[in-house]
Amino acid sequence: MPTLVLLAQIATSCMLTGLIWTIQVVHYPLFASVGADRFAEYEASHSRLITLVVGPLMLAEAATAIAFLAIRPPSVPMWIPLAGAALLAVVWLTTAFVSVPCHARLADGFDVEAHRRLVDTNWIRTAAWSARAAVLLLAGWLALNAVRGDG
After folding, report:
1. CB distance 130 to 19 below 8 Å
2. What pTM did the predictor assign?
3. Which residues contact 128 (CB under 8 A, 6 or more apart)?
4. What is the pLDDT of residues 27-49, one digit of tens each?
5. CA nearest to 134, candidates 87, 72, 69
6. Domain regions of the chain by residue span
7. Cα 69 from Cα 85, distance rounded (Å)
8. CA gap 77, 72 in Å, rounded
9. For residue range 72-102, what is the model confidence (pLDDT) as tens digits?
10. Does residue 125 contact residue 94 with C-beta atoms inside 8 Å?
């Protein structure tokens, strides 16, 4: 069971890390190219559709992060699930208190300042998810080495 929890953590974190990099580098910057006349409709579609992708992954990641705090392979030191949980808290708090309010402002139409804030502050989530993926990949490496006897 600890290995399954770890693998689920690695999978969800790496999927979300790839997704956030795509959003940060490609998707959010392109918001400025949509055009003012169609932006509110575009933002509504973006919010609805991205939630279908991100929502289940974030919930699965949160559930396995909580489980990983209690159930981890013996070769994985406790600081790893604690660091992972702290980084996940950064992601969730930034999402709730920075990204969601930016999207709420953009829902009324394109706003240069809200867009700039969204792009600039999304680097917080991008960095946190990237660091989280790295920490969890380290945990996977430690667990694999212990099983192989290299630990």
Report:
1. no
2. 0.94
3. 87, 88, 90, 91, 94
4. 999 999 999 999 999 999 999 99
5. 87
6. 2-148
7. 8
8. 9
9. 999 999 999 999 999 999 999 999 999 999 9
10. yes
State the Cα angle at 82 between 78 and 83, rounded to 5°: 115
Per-residue tokens: 35? 């055009």
| DSSP string covering 69-99 | HHS--TTS-THHHHHHHHHHHHHHHHIIIII
Phi-psi region of 60 (alpha: psi -120 to 50; beta: other; left: phi over 0): alpha
Structure tokens at 3: 């290995």
Average pLDDT of the chain to the nearest whole number: 96
Q: Which of 109, 102, 96 is nearest to 42 (CA)?
A: 109
pLDDT tens digits for range 100-113: 999 999 999 999 99
Q: How far apart are CA 129 and CA 28, in angstroms?
A: 17
- pLDDT band of residue 149 (cuts 50, 70, 90) is confident
Distance in angstroms between the alpha carbons of the first and the last residue of the chain:
20
- Domain 2-148, second-level architecture: Up-down Bundle (1.20)
The Cα diameter of the chain in Å comes to: 62
Q: How far apart are CA 25 and CA 38, in angstroms?
A: 22
